[in-house]
Design brief:
Blueprint lengths: L4 H5 L15 H13 L5 H10 L1 H5 L11 H10 L2 H15 L6 E8 L20 E7 L4 E8 L5 H10 L7 E4 L6 H9 L3 E6 L4 H14 L9 E10 L2 E11 L3 H5 L9 E11 L5 E10 L6 H11 L1 H13 L9 H20 L7 H10 L1 H10 L3
Parallel strand pairs: 1-4, 4-5
Antiparallel strand pairs: 1-2, 2-3, 5-9, 6-7, 7-8, 8-9
Length: 383
C-alpha cells in the first residue's frame, strides 16, 4: 500500500484549535512544499504562489476553496512541534527511499539567518545560535533526518539521538572529530553499522596514538598482515592529486590501545594527500587521521567512504545555503526548524528527479513554469 505525505500528516497531532481550523494540516504542508520546490522562500511568497496556481491545487486537494493566507502559513509552522514535523519527514524518506545503504554522513550546520533573531529580538539576539545536525545518505543523495542543538558543542549529545531515529543496519557512518566519543561509537555499533570518524590534533588522547601508529607504517615498503594500502590519483582543474590510504589494524586489541574509549574500534586510518599545481609546480602535502570499526581487508572501501563524507557539505549544506538561501532566512524558533525540514523535503524531491538535466535552480524554475513537471515531481515522491 502506497502511503503518501497526506496520510503521514494525519498520523500526528494538529496543534491548532478546532474552531480556528479552516484548512487541513495536510493542505498547508502540501502547498508549502510545492511552493518551496518552485522557489518560494517566505510565507508571502508561498501564499502568492498558491494563488497563482489555485486551479492546480484545487485539482489535487479535495474541497480546497481558497489558498491559506501568509499569516496562516506562519502561524501553523510556528505552532507545530518540530519533533512532529521531523517525524513526518523521516517517515516520508523511508517511503521514497526504500533502502539506505553505503555511507551516511553526519555533520552540523549553523543556520545563520535564524541565529540572528528570535521572537523577542527581531533584529538579533547576541549569542543566540541555532545549529542543525543532519544525516545524509551519500548513495541515495538525500537527507535522512535532523536534530536541533543550541550550540556546536552539544553535537556530542545530539548525534546519538539522530542515530537512534534512523535505520542504519549495514551502513558506514562518517563523522568529523566531534563524533570521537564512546557513547557515539557505542550507539553506531548498537545499530549494526560501522563508523569512520576523523581525529584532530586538539583531541590528543586519540590523536597521538593514531598518528604514532600511522607514522610507523606510512612509508614502509613492506606490507605485513596488519597493514593494507590503497593509492588513487586524479588530474583536473590544473592540478594533480595523489591520495595514499594506509589502514593499520590490530583487531579487537585496538580498543585496549585506545583505553576502551571507542567501542568496536578495529583500525586506524591515515590519508596522505599530495597536490601539485601543474602550471607552477607548487607542491603541498597533508596527512589526516581516522578511527574505524572496519578491518583493513578493503582499504579502497575506507578511502572511498572518507571522500563520500564531503558530499554532505557539497550536496546538502551548499545547496541549502546557495540554492535555497537558508542563511538569509529570518524565521524564528519553531518556524525556522520546520521550514528547514520543508526545504530538505523540496531538495530531496528535486535531487531524485533524473528527467531534467541542469542545475538545481533550473529544476526549480521549470517546476514553477511547467505544471506537468511539478505534478510529476510530487506524484513520484508520494505527494
Amino acid at each position: 500500500m502506497k502511503i503518501g505525505i497526506i496520510d503521514l500528516c494525519k498520523q500526528i497531532e494538529d496543534p491548532r484549535m478546532n474552531r480556528k481550523k479552516v484548512h487541513k494540516m495536510e493542505t498547508i504542508i502540501y502547498i508549502s512544499i510545492a511552493a518551496v520546490i518552485c522557489g518560494a522562500q517566505s510565507w508571502n511568497e508561498i501564499e502568492e504562489f498558491g494563488n497563482a496556481k489555485i486551479a492546480f491545487f484545487k485539482s489535487r486537494i479535495p474541497g480546497l476553496e481558497f489558498i491559506p493566507s501568509h499569516d496562516t502559513f506562519n502561524r501553523f509552522f510556528s505552532m507545530i512541534k518540530p519533533d512532529y514535523f521531523e517525524l513526518i519527514f523521516r517517515n516520508w524518506v523511508k517511503r521514497v527511499c526504500l533502502e539506505v545503504k553505503g555511507v551516511v554522513a553526519i555533520d552540523g550546520k549553523l543556520m545563520r539567518g535564524p541565529s540572528q533573531c528570535d521572537g523577542e529580538h527581531t533584529r538579533g539576539k547576541e549569542g543566540f545560535k541555532l545549529w542543525m545536525v543532519s544525516a545524509w545518505s551519500a548513495a541515495n543523495g538525500i537527507s535522512l533526518g535532523q536534530v536541533k542543538v543550541d550550540d556546536k558543542s552539544n553535537e556530542i549529545t545530539a548525534i546519538p539521538l539522530l542515530i537512534n531515529s534512523l535505520e542504519l543496519s549495514g551502513c558506514i557512518v562518517t563523522i568529523d572529530a566531534m563524533g570521537c566519543q564512546k557513547d557515539i561509537t557505542q550507539t553506531i555499533i548498537g545499530h549494526d553499522a560501522n563508523y569512520i570518524i576523523a581525529i584532530k590534533e586538539n583531541k590528543k588522547k586519540n590523536y597521538q596514538p593514531a598518528k604514532q601508529i600511522i607514522d610507523d607504517y606510512q612509508d614502509r615498503d613492506e606490507i605485513i598482515n596488519r597493514v593494507t594500502r590503497h593509492v588513487s590519483e586524479n588530474a583536473g582543474y590544473g592540478r594533480i592529486e595523489k591520495r595514499n590510504c594506509t589502514v593499520v589494524s590490530y583487531g579487537s586489541i585496538m580498543e585496549k590501545m585506545f583505553k576502551k574509549k571507542l567501542v568496536g574500534l578495529k583500525s586506524v586510518v591515515g590519508i596522505k594527500s599530495e597536490r601539485t599545481i601543474v602550471a607552477t609546480g607548487e607542491y603541498t602535502q597533508e596527512v589526516r587521521y581516522y578511527v574505524t570499526s572496519l578491518d583493513n581487508t578493503r582499504p579502497e572501501k575506507i578511502a572511498s567512504a572518507i571522500r563520500q563524507h564531503w558530499s554532505i557539505e557539497n550536496n546538502l549544506h551548499w545547496q541549502l545555503d546557495v540554492t535555497f538561501r537558508e542563511d538569509y532566512s529570518k524565521k524564528v524558533k519553531n518556524a525556522a526548524r520546520n521550514f528547514s525540514v520543508a526545504t530538505k523535503m523540496a531538495l530531496t524531491i528535486l535531487k531524485k528527479d533524473k528527467t531534467t538535466k541542469g542545475s538545481m535552480n533550473l529544476k526549480r524554475l521549470k517546476a514553477g513554469w511547467d505544471e506537468k513537471y511539478l505534478s510529476q515531481l510530487l506524484q513520484e515522491n508520494n505527494f
